[in-house]
Amino acid sequence: MSSLANPVNWVLAAVLGYISYNYFTSSTAPSPPAPRPKHAALVFREYTPKELEPFNGSTPETRILMAVKGNVYDVTRGRNFYGPEGPYGNFAGRDASRGLAKNSFDKDMLSPIDGPIDTLTDLDDDEKESLNDWAGHFEGKYQLVGKLIENKD
Ligand code: HEM
Fold first, then answer.
1. Which of 1, 3, 67, 142 is the Cys-Cys partner for 95 at CB 3.0 to 4.6 Å?
2. For atom 19 of ligand 1, which residue has the closest CA?
3. In 95-117, which positions are buried (b, 16+ CB within 10 angstroms) versus exposed (e)?
């Protein structure tokens, strides 16, 4: 029997044709990812706790900054961690040093925005080591964009 006369070949040709048609006319091509909001370039500067607070990631247009041991890092690309829905959102726009030292994201790890910078002098050796380890993590992963200084008033 010639291949054209074999009904199995007709069925196979029909299936192949159907698959090819769907492949080339499919409208389910993956859509490009939504564009990320453009953020203004940051110039290295000093931030008081009050000035740092607005960079808390509450809107996608705002960069997220965070202070660790007096250094201010741009953690915007870690928005999943530090955005409003993130597990470490408390740290956004704040001095996270005490929380990192004590491995706690409790709200009472944060010093008041209008108060003095946490001196951290009460930390024990393990807590100091934990904080230094975290400081190394942030230094290696995020851009240093400033220094934390005392409020002016
Ligand atoms: C409940 C236990 C916890 C779990 C299961 C957990 C899980 C994780 C995971 C999976 C990551 C991502 C690691 C990576 O991709 O590099 C991470 C990162 C992180 N965690 Fe936790 N964590 C916990 C507790 C904590 C606590 C108590 C703190 C408080 C200091 C904390 C602070 C952080 C920070 C600062 C990062 C780094 C985020 C970054 O790289 O920007 N975690 N955690």
1. 67
2. 81
3. bbbbbbbbeebeeebbbeeeeeb
